[in-house]
Write a structure and sequence with these properties.
By secondary structure, this protein is of the alpha+beta class. About 30% of the residues lie in helices and about 10% in strands. It is built from eight helices and eight strands; from the N terminus they run H-H-E-E-H-E-H-E-H-E-H-E-H-H-E-E.
C-alpha cells in the first residue's frame, strides 16, 4: 500500500482553519462551560506601584515626565516617584523623630574613620559612602568619617551637655533630641586627618577636603545639610562637615540650586498643591505600603495610605 505524503502547507492551512473555528465558538461554549472564565482568570493584572497614597493623585512614576504639558501635569525636574523614598525624610525641630525611632537596616560603615569606634549608617547610605570615599581617594583627597547614627538618648545627652557648657545658650551646633539627621542613620560627619581631635567649626570649609565634598557629594547622593547663609532656615549653624544622604536625583537638584532640605521639601509640596494634590501640613513619617519589593518586604512611603 502506497502512503501519500501530505504537503506541509496543507497541514498548516488546516490547523489555522481549525483554530479560527474554535476561536469563534469560544463565546458560546464559555457561557455553558466556563471556558471564557478560565481564559480571563489567567490574564495577569498589573499591580500599581503605589495605591491610594495621600499627597498625589494617579501616581504615574517616571512616565509622568514623558507626557505632554498641561495645567495640572507633574513638571518637577525629576519623577515624583523619587519623593516616595525614605531617604528624603525631613528631620528638624518641626519634624521630630520619636524617641523610640531606630532605622531597621543599620550596618557598620567600612570606610576610614577618626577612631576605632564603630559607626553605623543605613545600608544604602553606607554603600554610597564607600563609593564617595573611593572617588575622593582617587582624586588625592583622604576623608575620615567622624560620626554617623546616634540614638535619641545620645543626642539628648550631647544637647544637654552643650547647653550646660554654654550656660543654657543654644549656639546651634548640636541639634535638639529628635531633630537630628544623625538619628535617621543617613547623616554623617566627614573631616580630614588634620581636624581629628579639634573642635569642629566653619573654618573646616577652607580645607581641600571640604571643597571636594561640596563639589562631588551630590554625585553619590549626599548634600551639604547645613550650608552657610541658610542658618535661619535650618536652625543649625554652618557645618561644612555634615553630609546627609538623600539619593542622587534630589541631591544633584538641591546642590545645583543651592537649596536646603527644608526649601526642597517646601518646593515640592507647593508644586503638589498647585496641580490639585492634597498636601498635609503634618510632620513627615514613614509608612508601610501594601506593595512588596523583590526581597518580599513591604515598600515604605513618606505618605499615609488612604483608608
Amino acid at each position: 500500500m502506497i502512503r501519500r505524503k501530505t504537503k506541509p502547507w496543507l497541514v498548516r492551512a488546516a490547523a489555522w482553519a481549525a483554530a479560527l473555528v474554535f476561536a469563534a465558538a469560544i463565546p458560546a461554549i464559555g457561557e455553558s462551560s466556563g471556558i471564557a472564565w478560565i481564559v480571563e482568570s489567567v490574564t495577569p493584572t498589573p499591580e500599581p506601584l503605589l495605591t491610594d497614597m495621600a499627597g498625589f493623585d494617579d501616581l504615574q512614576g517616571e512616565a509622568a515626565s514623558d507626557q505632554p504639558a498641561s495645567d495640572n501635569q507633574w513638571l518637577f525636574p525629576f519623577p515624583r516617584s523619587v519623593l516616595y523614598q525614605n531617604t528624603l525624610r525631613l528631620v528638624n525641630t518641626s519634624n521630630l523623630l520619636d524617641a523610640s525611632y531606630v532605622p531597621n537596616d543599620l550596618i557598620r560603615i567600612s570606610v576610614r574613620k577618626t577612631s576605632s569606634s564603630a559607626i553605623l549608617m543605613q545600608r544604602e547610605a553606607s554603600e554610597a559612602l564607600d563609593a564617595l570615599f573611593a572617588e575622593a581617594l582617587a582624586d588625592g583627597v583622604t576623608l575620615y568619617a567622624h560620626s554617623g547614627y546616634r540614638s535619641y538618648q545620645t543626642q539628648k545627652s550631647m544637647y544637654d551637655n552643650r547647653l550646660s557648657r554654654n550656660k543654657g545658650v543654644d549656639d546651634g551646633y548640636v541639634a535638639k533630641p529628635g531633630a537630628s539627621d544623625h538619628q535617621t542613620g543617613l547623616g554623617v560627619d566627614i573631616i580630614s586627618k588634620e581636624w581629628i581631635g579639634k573642635p569642629l567649626n566653619g573654618a573646616f570649609a577652607n580645607t581641600k577636603e571640604a571643597a571636594w565634598l561640596k563639589a562631588h557629594c551630590a554625585d553619590y547622593g549626599f548634600i551639604l545639610r547645613y550650608p552657610e547663609g541658610k542658618e535661619a532656615i535650618t536652625q543649625i549653624a554652618f557645618e561644612p562637615w555634615h553630609m546627609r544622604y538623600i539619593g542622587t536625583d534630589a541631591a544633584r537638584y538641591i546642590m545645583n540650586e543651592d537649596l536646603t532640605l527644608e526649601e526642597f521639601d517646601a518646593l515640592w509640596r507647593e508644586h503638589v498643591a498647585a496641580i490639585g494634590g492634597a498636601v498635609s501640613g503634618e510632620p513627615m513619617h514613614v509608612y508601610q505600603t501594601d506593595v512588596k519589593g523583590p526581597d518580599g518586604d513591604h515598600e515604605l512611603s513618606l505618605f499615609a495610605q488612604g483608608d
